[in-house]
């Protein structure tokens, strides 16, 4: 099977991996320590960012991963992994109706996300038809609604800052259309047991223009227009996404801080790229389930996580796999290891 890295994935190596900063781990509390333990590590130093103005976006904190700085969409792709088709101009990106959602290449679990957005002006439409978009976590599972809710009536759990279809915002803090608005979102990803059972739900705290509008709100499952489905198990880290609701909503100054222990960066690449890696390589069987690869090693199935377009790792065992495209882009060889050493395996099927 033949594959050639798309321009997105080629540019990724130079532009995305080069900008990755370590995850924000911090000094984790240890309540078994005595109070004021002088051996407890100090918190890492972070230079605070600056506030945005109506004409100028602020500066992110020093440990933030910048997802959009107003210049390009190198860290965003379409849902299928192809190049992002939204417009970029004058320091913002604008939704192009009918082109589909954008998602990040990189995956995120627990995080602090900062997004600035502006509804179209002059305002057109009413209710859900006016300045509609959304900020999604868990790929497209969990939505913080974007809507022009300034003097615009609609159902409460679909207004600006709602956890769509489940939790209305505590207050309406929306500015007039055309003015830049901020969301600062704290997201705790749901956790699942090995058998897929829910251990803890997704939780959100949201500030809209500096006003608390969601306070540690728990979701009952994915957000949806007309359904209230239960949770289905998924990886803790998933892409973030912005919704195409056919309204020319603008976004700028998007950055994220990972929360919890630092780990390897994780990415979601196009299914067509993953499919080029499936097959049998010596004693390894590589398959794709959803948007993720699996490897059968020693008769055991392991989920693989992408740290680059060619390098993957498992989390339950220290298994590392690197696929080796040849000069024509064909993948007939990989290098794999379990804890130590390296093994070369040729494609046999």
Characterize the structure shown:
Helices cover 4% and strands 35% of the residues. The strands form 5 sheets. Strands 1, 3, 4, 6, 9, 12, 13 and 15 form an 8-stranded antiparallel sheet that branches. It has 2 domains: 51-258, Jelly Rolls (Sandwich), CATH 2.60.120.560; 271-346. It is mainly beta and 349 residues long. It has 2 helices and 24 strands.
Distance between the termini: 10 Å
**Helix and strand succession?**
HEEEEEEEEEEEEEEEHEEEEEEEEE
The CATH topology name of the largest domain reads: Jelly Rolls
**Percent of residues in helical segments?**
under 10%
Structural class by secondary-structure content: mainly beta
> What is the CA-atom radius of gyration, in angstroms?
21 Å
Going by CATH, the homologous superfamily of the largest domain would be Exo-inulinase, domain 1
Work out the count of structural domains: 2
CATH class category name of the largest domain: Mainly Beta
Report on the biggest sheet: 8 strands, antiparallel
- Poorly predicted runs are 1-8, 11-20
How many strands appear in the DSSP assignment? 24
Give the overall shape. globular
Shape-level CATH architecture of the largest domain: Sandwich
What value does the average pLDDT take?
92
| Tally of DSSP helical segments | 2
The proportion of residues in beta strands is: 25-35%
């Amino acid at each position: 099977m033949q594959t050639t890295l798309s321009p997105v994935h080629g540019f990724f190596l130079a532009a995305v991996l080069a900008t990755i900063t370590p995850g924000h781990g911090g000094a984790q509390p240890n309540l078994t320590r005595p109070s004021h333990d002088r051996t407890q590590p100090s918190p890492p130093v972070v230079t605070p960012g600056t506030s945005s103005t109506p004409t100028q976006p602020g500066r992110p904190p020093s440990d933030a991963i910048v997802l959009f700085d107003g210049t390009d969409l190198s860290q965003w792709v379409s849902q299928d992994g192809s190049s992002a088709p939204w417009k970029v101009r004058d320091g913002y990106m604008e939704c192009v109706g009918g082109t589909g959602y954008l998602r990040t290449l990189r995956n995120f679990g627990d995080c602090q996300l900062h997004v600035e957005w502006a509804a179209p002006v002059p305002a057109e439409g009413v209710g859900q038809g006016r300045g509609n978009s959304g900020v999604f976590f868990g790929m497209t599972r969990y939505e913080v609604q974007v809507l022009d809710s300034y003097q615009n009536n609609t159902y409460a759990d679909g207004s600006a800052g709602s956890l769509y279809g489940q939790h209305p915002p505590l207050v309406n803090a929306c500015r007039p259309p055309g003015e830049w608005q901020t969301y600062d979102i704290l997201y705790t990803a749901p956790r699942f047991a090995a058998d897929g059972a829910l251990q803890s739900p997704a939780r959100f705290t949201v500030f809209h223009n500096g006003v608390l509008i969601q306070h540690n709100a728990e979701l009952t499952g994915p957000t949806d227009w007309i359904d209230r489905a239960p949770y289905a198990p998924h990886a803790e880290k998933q892409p973030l996404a912005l919704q195409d609701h056919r309204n020319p909503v603008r976004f700028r100054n998007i950055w994220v801080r990972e929360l919890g222990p630092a780990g390897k960066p994780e990415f979601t690449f196009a299914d067509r790229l993953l499919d080029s890696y499936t097959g049998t390589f010596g004693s390894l069987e590589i398959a794709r389930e959803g948007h993720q690869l699996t490897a059968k090693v020693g008769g055991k199935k392991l989920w693989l996580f992408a740290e680059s377009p060619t390098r993957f790792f498992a989390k339950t065992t220290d298994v590392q796999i690197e696929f080796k495209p040849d000069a024509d882009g064909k993948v007939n060889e990989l290098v794999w290891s379990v804890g130590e050493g390296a093994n070369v395996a040729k494609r046999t099927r």
